Amino acid sequence: MESFAGKIAVVTGGGSGMGRELVRQLAAEGCSVAACDVHRGAVAATEELASERAPAGTKVTSHSCDVADEAQVLRFRDEVLAAHAADHVDLVFSNAGIGGGGSFIADPREQWESVFGVDFWGVYYCARAFLPLLIKSTEGVLVNTSSVNGFWASIGPGVPHTAYSAAKFAVKGFSEALIADLRVNAPHIKVSVVMPGHIGTSITANSRKIQAGNLTDDISATELAPLNPPASRMARASWVRSSAARASSNSSLPRK
User: How many Å apart are CA 15 and CA 41, to the nearest integer?
Assistant: First the structure.
């Protein structure tokens, strides 16, 4: 796609982090955007920020939607068509995601399934809802966000990350299967799967809010502990120490 100008894009998880930046950059290129998030206030703030940089005639709208709930996704789809007076969309970024449910054994089943519900079923429901609208476009693109944890199924040695990793592996496989499917059945539609490494977003805080049912930014030590297990802290501390040692060793090398 050589230009985003005049296109219509859908972005899930648009209230913060990668989703917010996608909305801002698309709008700045003259692409109209419908962004959704489970946090209504956050996505409304994204709408305001993106609209400030958008060229005249570019429309940015914000919507409340829990992508793990298919009924809400279908409602969001209908809101997009009405708000943008359109019968199609050109780009869909299935970006929404949360963390948690690290252990299949030690963590509550409800938390595990909540994470998998957002991170995989949300991608699936959005594909079901929006692919028919992409197919109506002259050139449509579905972009699904997986993760480096779609390659590596843990955070590190001794730190299980099973719900998130299983979902991100599923997103990768689903996207690659869709590539083959669309080549046969809708060759003008493309699929991309994104595999980010560590990105400095608010996913940990947002995940805690969803898991705890507490939408404030305040976090107690009790709420923080499951999101920052001792093994994870030890792994990070070990990495910091080894990095410092390498830096010290490199500093003694001759310089040109």
Answer: 8
Distance in angstroms (rounded) separating the CA atoms of residues 189 and 90: 9
Taking only the tens place, the pLDDT of each residue in 147-168 is 999 999 988 888 899 999 999 9
The values of phi and psi at residue 242, to 5°, are -70, -35
Taking the CA of residue 52 as centre, how many other CA atoms within 13 Å lie in the half-sphere pointing to its CB? 5
CA pair distance 118, 100, nearest whole angstrom: 11
Range of the domain at 19: 8-251
Active site annotation includes 124? no
pLDDT in tens, 107-127: 999 999 999 999 999 999 999
SS3 state at 160: strand
Tokens in use for 53?
A: 């940089």
Judge whether 3 lies within some domain.
no
**Is 136:88 a contact under the CB 8 Å cutoff?**
yes
Q: Based on C-alpha coordinates, what's the Rg of the chain?
A: 20
Structural domains in the chain (count):
1
In a domain, 181, yes or no: yes
Q: What is the CATH number of the domain that holds 81?
A: 3.40.50.720
Cα distance between residue 35 and residue 20, in whole Å: 8
Predicted TM-score of the model (pTM): 0.79
CB 119 within 8 Å of CB 172: no
Residue from 76, 130, 164, 169 carrying the catalytic annotation: 164
Does residue 171 lie within any of the structural domains? yes
Where residue 177 falls among pLDDT bands split at 50, 70, 90?
Answer: very high
| Strand 8-12 with 91-94, pairing | parallel
Whether 44 is covered by a domain: the verdict is: yes
